[in-house]
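dTDP-fucosamine acetyltransferase, Pantoea coffeiphila. Tokens?
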Amino acid sequence: MRMFATLKPLAWENAFFGQQSALLELQGETPLDIAALDDWPLVQVKVLAQQSAELDALSALGFSMVEGEADCVLGITPAERPTGIRIARAEHIPALRQAASEAFIWSRFRAPWFAAGDSGRFYAQWIENAVRGTFDHQCLLAVDEQGAMQGFVSLRELEDRTARIGLLAVLPAYQGLGIGQRLMDAANDWCRARRLTRLHVATQLGNLAALRLYLRCGGVIERTAYWLYRKMP
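Tokens:
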């Protein structure tokens, strides 16, 4: 099939990972220049699950499916402020970096597409940036009665009076104790205090625990998509 698309260099990612990668955006009025794909060692593309013709065409061009993604939306509801929630500060960054690097090792930034350890390093930087208010605007911690960190969630306010969860994770020792629910309650409270209307969150299709949490909290799946990569030998 004939596809209309543009290739855009991923400047921040390329600097961080030390490789040359481009994002293929399936939109616009310019026909895809197939030869231009060979100019990039790695090309990434995100395709809606219902775009079966595009998925087939990209597969024929050498793209491989890397992961599926579900995007959920939740309404902001009146509720009591959850206990045991703190705003992450600079002193929490080392522990947060370690926790994030261990929680997200199987993301789409994993080997063989990226170097071993790149995924953990990427998300460690993400959560540090959230604490510092860069990209995501804030990071909240769930803590126990002694103040020990149990989990974290980062949040970003968007221009349309909505928000998006960047990262959410519960430390292994505290899983199964309702910490994820408390973090979602904290995210809801954060949005309510800012008079926001909706909260978005995305997760891997294979992350059933996260999907169950978001649906249990009233989330609705807005869309599903696949990330595909084309890597030159």
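The chain has two domains: 6-70, 73-223.
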